[in-house]
Amino acid sequence: MMNRRAMLQGALGAGAAGGMLLADMNRSAKAQDTSPIAVGSALPMSGIAAADGIEFKNGLDLAAEEINAAGGILGRPVEIHIEDTKEMGADLVSQSMQRLIDRFNTPVLINGYNLGTNMIEMDVAADNDVIMMHYNTLISHNEKFKTDPERYYGSFQGDPPEFWYGPGCLNFLKSLSDAGTWKAPNKKIAIIPSANEYSIVIANAIRDQAKDYGFEVSLFETVPFPTNQWGPTLAKLRQDPPAAIIVTHFLPQDLAQFMVQFLTQPTNSLVYMQYGPSLPAFREIGGETINGVIYSTVVGCLPDDFSKPFRESYRAKFGPNSAYITGSQTYDGLWMWAIAAAIAGGPGEPFNKEQVSKVAAVMRRNVYRGVNGTYRADPAGQSAYCYPTQTADPSLGMPHQFLQHQDYKTDPKLIAPALYATDTFLLPPWIK
């Protein structure tokens, strides 16, 4: 009989705890099939998002290594297969996913993010009856799921959609001001998205709710994607300095250039940026100019005791400058699916809707505490709940993390939300 305690620890934990569950299942399973299970992943291994693609692959490799060390899934090892989505887009991503299914008979696809797909990934998964988990961080996933939940039963978003960045950012700024740790010179905020769905949805959510949090939008300017020429935008910011500059563009090299150009003539404004500052390239290019920058992510490895073994293993395997905050996403995704497949009695295979539906049902049922926080599938969209703006219960939502670069030579500091924070906010050095 399965050890109940080990099962519960595995279902709610990650890494070693998950290994306990799989090892327990493997001891009791009477599996005759010991052939490898192919796990597919369509990742941007080249092109503008290659830095993230590499980390997503790293996360999968580490999770597979740990799962196999625990005995695999009911005695079967997992094998990772990657297709490069290059510059991404609907055609490249869908073709990459289909090749993985056709060549390797993959019952699951665990992607990082891909841009410009219009969530075609969900159709590939539905047409082939496979599980697909991704980290596109898009509300369009939820909206598409709602159109036909039965068809898209196997599609999961491993984090909250980007919409929640909007109220989360505004609430964070208001909290800083209310606490007196930041004395805002005015109520103005400037919002600078780039021309892509992710950036614009976040920017619109901030713009539309700014008044509710006591702010007024003094500038809303969309820049090209990608871009490193910030001069015209900076000129407008300097003509009418806001209390906070909110940049929802997310490529790290471009955001580093923003800071280099901003500091030639800074304004007394907080600078908040989207996701890109989490990647090593931001620190490498920006150097000392990034000290004081705030950024946030609704998914990323937490700097807590629970994730410490993962962080140490990741950097030992992939190097001291590797970005575990990104690799942690696919790492949790693979562990989550592996546990669900084991509980369901096996992973199934393409077009085996009966068995794949069982795996999907476990993924919807389980509450999983991984290195990124807690994943619980929102039944209305099959993405994670966001804490604290979507759910007030930290045990049932993934934390919206706010981090600050306080010294570019070290990792950024987690300054919110309060239950997870390890450090406190520091006033940026350019604010006088």
UniProtKB/TrEMBL annotation:
Residues 36-382 form the Leucine-binding protein domain. InterPro entries: BCAA_transport (IPR051010), Leu-bd (IPR028081), Peripla_BP_I (IPR028082), TAT_signal (IPR006311). Gene3D superfamilies: 3.40.50.2300. One of its GO terms (biological process) is amino acid transport. It comes from the Bacteria. The keyword Manganese does not apply. Keywords: Amino-acid transport, Plasmid, Signal, Transport. PANTHER family: LEUCINE-SPECIFIC-BINDING PROTEIN (PTHR30483), PERIPLASMIC BINDING PROTEIN OF ABC TRANSPORTER FOR NATURAL AMINO ACIDS (PTHR30483:SF6). Belongs to the leucine-binding protein family. This is ABC transporter substrate-binding protein. It comes from Shinella sumterensis.
